[in-house]
Structure formats: C-alpha cells, structure tokens
Specification:
- The protein is mainly beta.
- Among the domains are: 230 residues, 7 Propeller (Methylamine Dehydrogenase, Chain H); 150 residues, YVTN repeat-like/Quinoprotein amine dehydrogenase (Methylamine Dehydrogenase, Chain H, 7 Propeller), CATH 2.130.10; 132 residues, YVTN repeat-like/Quinoprotein amine dehydrogenase (Methylamine Dehydrogenase, Chain H), CATH 2.130.10.10.
- The chain contains 1 helix and 59 strands.
- The chain has a 5-stranded antiparallel beta sheet, with no helix packed on it. Strands 29-33-32-31-30 form a 5-stranded mixed beta sheet, with no helix packed on it.
- The relative contact order is 0.11.
- The N terminus is likely disordered.
C-alpha cells in the first residue's frame, strides 16, 4: 500500500481548506499563447531516470475516433499523451515552471470526438488559500503546443475526489462549447473553446466538503453532471442533466442512500442508450466503505441496480469486506459490454469486473489475472508478487480493441490485450516525488534516490526501472534521510517510514541493506534525516525540532543523545576529516561544528538568515571545511573555513539546493549545480568556476514545476546532473 500520496503532497501546504465560496463568480481570462519552445544554449538533453509510474493515475481517456490515441492524468505529475508508435507516454506539461507548480495537478481532461487534434486540460492541485488559481490549457495539436487561460477559481487535482470525473467536457451539440465542474464554485461554461469562462446557474449549492461537480458526461445530446456535496437522501439529488445546455434539472428516479452518496464516474453505451454510474459513500481514493453501480436507460428513464458485489460482506480473512466503486468504461464495439472497478477494498484487494450483458452478470478479471511486473519490479513492494491494484478509479476500454483494458492504481497503469495477462503500460509516465539524491563516486550505480512512497532505489541503469526494486530489509515508504561516507562510499545509511525499522545501513553501496540493531525512541514517530562521517564510523540521526539528535559509533547497536546540537539543525559531514560535522540552525541563523566526531557541537558563524523552512547545507567533495548554504530567496553563502566565516555569493539571487559533479576539463574545482536563480529565471544552473559565473542548463520546455528539494551532479561524468522533482520523478540532463 502506498501511504505517502497525501502526506508527500503536503510539502508545499500550509493552511486548512479554504471556506466554500457561496456566490458564483464570473470567470474570464484572455487566451495566452504558450511560450515557444526554447533550445538550451548549453546544449543539454533532458530525460527521466526510469522508475515507471509510482504515482496515482487519476484518469485515462481513449480518443473515441482515433486508434492508438489516449491521454492520462495524474494528481501531481501532469498529463501525458500515449504515442502508439513509440509505445510510451509523452509528457505534456513539463513546460510549467516554478511559479506554476500548483498546475502540475490535473483536475480533469477532455477530448473533442469530432476534432481529433484538440485536447483540453483543467489544472490546479490544491484549493487552499495558499495555492494559486487553476488554469485551462487547450491545444490544437494533441498537446504539442498549448494556449492557456487562467481562472479565478481553484481546482483540486490532489485533493479528495481526484479520481472522480471527468469534470471537463466538450458539449455534444457544439464543439466550441466546454463545461468545467469545480469543487467550490459550481459549473463553468466556455463558448469559445476554453478561451474564456463564465459561471452558469446550477441547481445545487457547494459545501465545505470540496467536491462540487464530480463528473460530466454526454449521452447523445444530453449532458449529465454528478454532484458530490449531496448526502444522497430524498430531496438532495446528486445527478443532474441538461438537454438544451441552459436549464439543469435533477435526474428523476436516481439512486439515493449511503451507497449512492457520491457519483464517482459515468460512461454511456450509445448502442443500448444506457448510462452507467458508479457510486461510493465518500469521494475517495481513501475512506470509501460502501458503493454501488447503477444504470439509467435514457429512452424511458428506468434505473437498474447492477452492482457486481455488494460491499459489507465478510472477507476471507474474517474482516469486513468494505469498499466503494470507482472507474467505469463501456465497449464501443460490443453493446452491453463494460468494466467497472472497486476502490478502497483492502481485505480482498480491488478488482475490475466485466459484464457482457449490461450488468446482469459479472466476472472479476482479477481472479484469472497473470501479472507481469518485470519491467517495474518495485511493484512487488519487497515481496514475491505484485497485487492487482489499489486506488482504482481510472478505467479505460480501447474503442478499437475490446481486449485492451487499462486501469490506474496508486502506483501504475495496468493494461491487458486478452483480459488475462496484465502488465504496466507505463513507459514514459513518471510521477515520483523525489526527496533525496546520491551519485556515488564508485560502484555499479551512478544514482541512488530516496523517494516518497517507494523508499530508496538503487539505479543500476538510468534507462530501466531498478532491477532490485525498492530497497528491502526493511521496505520503507517515504525516505527521510540518505547519506554515504565520502571516503568509504560503499557505506550508505538511510531513514524513512517503515512498519518495522526506520533506519538501515549498507556496506555494498546500497545494493543490500541491514536494519540498525536498535533505534532511538524518537525515530518511531519522526524518522528524520541522517548523516555519516567520512569513514562511516559515526552516524548522526536527527528528528526535527523537538527530540534531540542521536549518535551511534557502533553501526546502530547503541545510540546516545547529542545535547549540544540545536534541535532541528541540518547536518552535513566533512568529506575528508572523519572527526568533523557541521550543522545549520535555522532558528538562530547559526552555523555549528563538531571536531570530536559528533560528540559535541559549538557555534561558529552567527547572524545568518533565520526562520527558513527550506534550506540546504552542502559540503564540497574532496575538500575539508568547504561549505555551501542555500537560503532560498536570501541567496547562496559559502564558508571555506568550516563555518567560522561566511561570505554571500553575489552571482546568485535565489538558491534552493545545490550539488557537485565532475569538474570541467582543465578546472580544479567540481562543477556546481543549483536549483535557483542568478537573475529572474528560476531554473537549473551550472557553474564551472566556483560560482563566479553560471549558465542555465534547462530550457523553457523542461521546467517540471517545483524542483527545490535536491540537485546533484555525477562525480564520474562531467555535465551530467540529476534533479529531484515534486511529481515528475528524477530528471537527468547531459551535454548533447
């Protein structure tokens, strides 16, 4: 089970959910052309380090009239188009930059059945007050280029209900008209293909639950809208329709009660003229314990309950078999044939049901499924077998191939061509939130990453998912610390959330691991960052702003408190001297140092910027006491005497994180790579002359939203840099 999809996306969060907006605002915006593709002057080529998925695929949409054309959306990693010839997903939103990080969550997408090259995206990750407003992107060339309209309302692509939908629809009567359902601001309409938007009258009122319009679907010339802020009781409908595009009314006879509280998804069978709707008692992906599937015969208004299995029975392990229903898709070639998915069914494991008789009988495709995850071994989660899936709210059925079914999970997109053999259809789609990066100077792997949800990965190849999968013994979900001994790089330590031990060590460069024999009590609730000294003889483990850091000199057999180190200080080890550690205390803006292998710390430079929640302290490789401090908008600082004195780097205006790589030919100092800015453009920069000058090495089409967590160069390959993103995995750039 992936447990980090909510917590890891709170990295940029602050306040509680914004209050619902009572009135319907007017929403308009001037169409803004996408920035033309720019060629990086430094000649860099950018690619993903291949992991394969790892995030929540919240929607998948086959184009109804073009074979092999499909789109996928994710909750924090943008949108993708399927390239059938290349057999991979093409990212469509990597051009969104630092200021637009909130747009990497895709709330909804839509295609135009009559105009195959048109595609639309509704973007916005959070609806809280600290998050920016949403936007709509529209393309006439399948996402190769975009025009953008900024909205005055917020969208919630990474909030509860993000697997519902689609909330965006091209009107079946007029391709210039689009509908957009929002969470707090009712229903919006555009009559100029998404260039401008206005609120329209809708008979339901938003509430603080933040669901609003959950789905929009066309059934011939009628548009249906699901409503998630109803409790499903009489007098509070949750499904509406319009036949003329002006007046909305509740659908007569619709299901009510707990199992039909939230309409999750809907699909229309044009052959039988029946609309299928999945329901759950919560929007999901978590929290669902009941649900149903109903169909509406649109010609006479008759509703039929076609639920495959009623939730609430007894699972094989004796627990309650609770779940809701999620995805639904109909077969465009075979009348009465459809698939639906369960969601949040942990005891019996979620499944996809298929019916060929309009829902009268069903077959669970999980029962005979043969899963092949050899291309993405991490999906075994440290065990012997992969599970069929969880968080299944996105289901697609190829309109040109009845055997081609896909469904999204919290970590991948599974696909079959024969309804039995399943494998991830995930190439090119990377949604990892990368947290820590190491590029060892020796060994098989050029990269070790620490990530949200999937722990630590040993990248024996950059172009294939790690063959060992997730680091085991123990398997952990979210990484909080990752470090190696600079003079003994075969020794690596890691920390993170785990059901057993929250810390582990490796003596073979991260290929295999052993848990620490013991761990400090504080590690159970807050397994913070960890460092090791140059020769790997001492480990320091810190735990945030409350418990004191702890020290071990016997590889985790015993631990002692380091009372002289300020709580919450960020640590780094000297790469040459095993007796030296350094720490920055953001509470007081003070650099501290230890010269007795971490037993005690004393203050050195004072008066630096204080209170920053995001900062990085980095030690230059191969040098003693050469420290670099990134203080976000307060800039970049350097000390060459172990923190006794500190100088601000004038060439840099903003620095979030930096790392080092192999020196340029003829240079004596390592190449420096930084996520920050030298003037006004936030990006990835390289300096070959100790930060005297910089060159931007990413371009306008490769920005990936927020990239302020980790950057490091490769000590063995000049020019190669690894960049941690908050939803687009690990990007690596090389000189072309």
């Amino acid at each position: 089970m992936s447990t980090f999809h909510l917590s890891r996306r709170s990295v940029l969060a602050g306040s509680a959910a914004a209050a619902a907006v009572a009135s319907l605002p007017t929403v308009s915006g001037q169409a803004r052309a996408a920035t033309p593709a720019a060629v990086a002057q430094s000649g860099y080529r950018w690619r993903n380090v291949v992991i394969g998925g790892t995030g929540f695929v919240t929607g998948v949409l086959f184009h109804p009239s073009v074979r092999g054309l499909a789109y996928a959306r994710t909750d924090i990693g943008g949108a993708y188009r399927w390239d059938d010839l290349a057999d991979c997903w093409i990212p469509l939103t990597d051009h969104l930059g630092w200021d637009d990080w909130n747009l990497l969550g895709v709330e909804a997408m839509a295609v135009d059945p009559a105009h195959p090259d048109r595609v639309y995206l509704a973007l916005g990750t959070y609806t809280q007050s600290w998050a920016g407003n949403g936007a709509v992107l529209r393309s006439e060339d399948r996402g190769a280029t975009w025009k953008r309209t900024d909205l005055t309302v917020k969208l919630g692509g990474n909030e509860d209900g993000r697997g519902c939908g689609e909330r965006l629809l091209v009107d079946p009567r007029n391709a210039d008209t689009l509908w957009l359902g929002t969470r707090h601001d009712g229903l919006l309409k555009s009559t100029d293909r998404g260039a401008t938007w206005n609120a329209v009258s809708f008979p339901a009122s938003p509430s603080a639950t933040g669901q609003g319009v959950t789905l929009l679907v066309a059934a011939d010339r009628t548009v249906y809208a699901g409503w998630g802020d109803s409790d499903g009781t009489a007098g509070k409908p949750n499904l509406y329709r319009t036949a003329d595009g002006k007046t909305w009314e509740p659908v007569p006879g619709q299901p009510s009660g707990t199992a039909a509280k939230v309409p999750i998804r809907a699909a229309y069978d044009r052959h039988t003229r029946e609309l299928y709707v999945t329901y759950a008692n919560a929007p999901g992906p978590n929290g669902q314990s009941d649900g149903s599937v109903h169909k509406l015969r649109t010609v006479d208004g008759k509703w039929t309950d076609v639920t495959p299995v009623k939730p609430g029975g007894t699972a094989t392990d004796g627990s309650a078999d609770t779940f809701g229903y999620g995805g639904v898709a109909v077969d465009a070639r075979r009348p009465g044939t459809l698939v639906v998915s369960t969601n949040n069914r942990w005891a019996e494991i979620d499944t996809v049901f298929r019916s060929t008789d309009g829902g009268r009988t069903w077959k669970s495709l999980k029962d005979d499924a043969v899963l092949d995850v050899s291309e993405t071994p991490y999906l075994k989660w440290g065990g012997d077998e992969a599970k069929f899936g969880w968080w299944i709210q996105a289901v697609g059925l190829d309109p040109f191939d009845s055997g081609h079914v896909v469904y999204g999970t919290g970590a991948t997109l599974y696909s079959t061509r024969d309804l039995k053999h399943w494998a991830p259809q995930i190439r090119g789609l990377e949604e990892t939130a990368a947290l820590q990066l190491l590029s060892p100077p020796t060994g098989e792997a050029h990269l070790i990453s620490g990530n949200g949800d999937i722990g630590v990965l040993y990248h024996d190849r950059l172009t294939a998912s790690p063959s060992r999968g997730m680091a085991a013994n123990p398997v952990s979900s979210t990484t909080t610390g990752l470090a190696l001994a600079a003079a003994k790089p075969s020794y690596v330590v890691r920390t993170g959330w785990s059901s057993s031990a929250n810390g582990a060590w490796s003596d073979d460069g991260g290929q295999t691991w052993e848990p620490f024999e013991t761990q400090p009590a504080a590690a159970k609730d807050a397994p913070g960052p960890i460092v090791t000294n140059a020769d790997g003889s001492v480990v320091l483990w810190s735990f945030g702003t409350s418990p004191a850091a702890h020290r071990s000199a016997d590889n985790g057999a015993t631990w002692s408190e380091v009372s002289s180190l300020p709580k919450g200080a960020v640590l780094v080890a000297d790469p040459l001297d095993p007796t030296c550690f350094y720490a920055f205390d953001t509470a007081t803006g003070t650099l501290h140092a230890s010269t007795d292998s971490g037993l005690t710390f004393t203050a050195r430079a004072t008066g630096l910027s204080s209170g920053d929640t995001e900062f990085r302290l980095t030690a230059a490789p191969g040098r003693s006491g050469d420290l670099w401090l990134s203080l976000k908008e307060n800039g970049l600082y350097r000390s060459t005497d172990g923190g006794r004195t500190v100088t601000k780097i004038s060439s840099c205006t903003v620095s979030y994180t930096l790392g080092f790589g192999k020196a340029a030919e003829g240079a004596s100092y390592p190449a420096i790579y930084m996520a920050g800015s030298t003037e006004t453009i936030m990006g990835v920069y390289r300096s070959d002359d100790e930060a005297k000058t910089w060159v931007r090495i990413n371009d306008d089409q490769h920005q990936w939203g927020w990239i302020g967590r980790a950057v490091t160069g490769d000590p063995r390959v000049y020019g190669r840099v690894y960049v941690a993103t908050n939803g687009r995995g690990v990007q690596y750039g090389e000189l072309a």
